[in-house]
Amino acid sequence: MKNFLILGGSGKTGRRIASRLTAAGHSVRLAGRTGGDVRLDLDDPATHAAAVADVSAAYLFEPSPDAGRQATPRMAALVEAAVAAGVQRLVVLTAQGSGNEQHGLHSTEQAVIESGLEWTVLRPGWFAQNFSEDFWLPAVRSGTLALPGGEGRLPFLDAEDIADVATAALTEDGHAGQAYDLTGPRAIGFGEAVELIAKASGKPLQYLDITPEEYLEQQLSAGVPRNAAERMTRLVMMGRGGAVAGVADGVERALGRAPRRFEDFVVAAAATGCWS
Predict the structure, then answer these.
(1) What pTM does this model have?
(2) What is the pLDDT of residues 222-241, one digit of tens each?
(3) How many other CB atoms sit within 10 Å of the CB of residue 67?
(4) Contact 237/244 with Cβ under 8 angstroms?
(5) What sections of the chain are H helices per DSSP?
(6) How many angstroms separate the CA atoms of 11 and 2, rounded?
(7) Three-class SS of residue 179?
(8) CB atoms inside a 10 Å sphere around CB 99
């Protein structure tokens, strides 16, 4: 592999993968609808050919969780352009459970699998960085994380592990035809998570269990679009019920090591000052 395309190169996983590839001396092209080295809009096939030209391997993801419900997902056009351009290897980020035909990203995943190219699928669970980079960061900074999570436990996954697996799949042999389910090493509750964050950050933090209705209203009041707020509420409720508590072995299968612990994530995150 020589030249690499990273879709969403400024995102949570993309920027980490790009950093690893660049540090290793690889040629990296960042693509996105806005920003990056080249414009790539999944809804505009006219932007696809230039993005994949002279690319050996590409990291792809579908930012819209339900886009794959289309009979022909929009990722299919990009995959077709990649095949025509001579791309050899595709690594696609989907989500936990996307191997199920009813999942919103299933057909997106299938577009990559059926491409005829070398492919690897990454199916991550809940990101540990939800506490430090986006969804729950304002609440953590405020001192109260209010969620309808109950006593549910989740195996939070460090995005650094996703980046390590993706980089290995892009640059090394032995990952073609693999679908890696990725989680952290153990499931923990929100109560334990905030205790660990409080200890690492030195700031008081409490977890407050609230109703789904309260959480939905909380998100809407913060300006979150209703469809995104409803989706996040459903996901948190799935965690409350224990539906996503299982620990997967994808990180170990891909890298030959255990995934990073949440305890180590919070120490590293606190050192960046994100919770100050």
Answers:
(1) 0.94
(2) 899 998 899 889 889 888 87
(3) 17
(4) no
(5) 14-23, 48-52, 75-85, 106-113, 137-142, 159-171, 190-201, 212-221, 226-240, 250-255, 262-271
(6) 22
(7) strand
(8) 17
